Amino acid sequence: MVAVVSLVVIVTIGLLVTRIATVALTMTGMSLEHARFQARSAFTGTGFTTSEAEAVVSHPVRRRIVMVLMLVSGAGAVSVLGTLILSYAGVDSTGGGLRRTVVIIGSMAGLLWLAKNDRVDRLLRRVIERVLSRVADLDVRDYAALLHLRGRWRVVQLPVKDDDWITSRPLGLLRLPEEGVAVLGVERDDGWIGAPSEDLRLRAGDVVTLYGRQAILDDITDRLHGDEGEEASERSRAWHAATPPVEVVQRRRR
User: From residue 144, how far is each of 35, 58, 178, 220 by CA, in Å?
Assistant: First the structure.
């Protein structure tokens, strides 16, 4: 029975290792669903060519997490197989073999239930996050992937000039969200203004950080004070209202 207990312990450790890897991946900015899939894929040695896998390979911290997981999984698979064989070594009767089989199946079912239990998952996740935050610096988020900056979306810093369309008016009057553009912050001589309010007026010398589609950001950069700037803004708002986000179109096609 010592070998049976060893088998259960090894499997438990394997489940715990994949859970730790999942939490570690989420701490780098990956969603829980994708992190769980990539951790299980690496642990089982199953390869998938997906955009999430590319996000792991291109991110140095995620890549190290998966590499450690693959090394651990190799040793774990050999241990599980060897211990499973030893579990039936020395069995001198059919009844003894059946009893050990029942114990193994029951133990595996119990571990599977614990792995899928929401309360256990939340508790274990909190404990793992607390421990990892103390022993490792994993909060290195791939903001380019989170904001989809590899596609049509961009973050730009726009130096504000006297004759720019965005100068000397409250942000609320510019109606940038109606063009699909978010103002992330404004850098001034006296510091950084994050998530500025609609009442903030941009002035010459500011550097405003904008997030949106590349084409619209380029258009805003070229706009000047006057009727032409206002007409460009109206055209951009109309285009944005009539054009669904790229991600929505892709989901519908699937």
Answer: 17, 11, 23, 22
Residue 149 clears pLDDT 80, i.e. is over it: no
Exposed e or buried b per residue across 236-249, where buried means at least 16 C-beta atoms within 10 angstroms of its C-beta: bbeebeeeeeeeee
Kindly indicate the confidence band of residue 150, based on its pLDDT and cuts at 50, 70 and 90: low
The rounded distance, in Å, linking the Cα atoms of 254 and 250 is: 7
Tens-digit pLDDT profile for residues 117-131:
778 777 877 887 777
Which residues on adjacent β-strands are paired with residue 192?
Answer: 187
Amino acid at 26: T
CA distances from 167 to 50, 155, 185, 224 (A): 44, 19, 15, 9
CA-nearest of 252, 233, 230 to 241 is 233
User: Taking Cα atoms as reference points, which of 1, 81, 58, 67 lies closest to residue 39?
Assistant: 67
Whether pLDDT at 227 is above 50: yes
Strand ranges (E), the chain: 153-159, 182-188, 191-194, 207-213
**Tens digits of residue pLDDT in 57-74:** 777 777 778 887 777 765
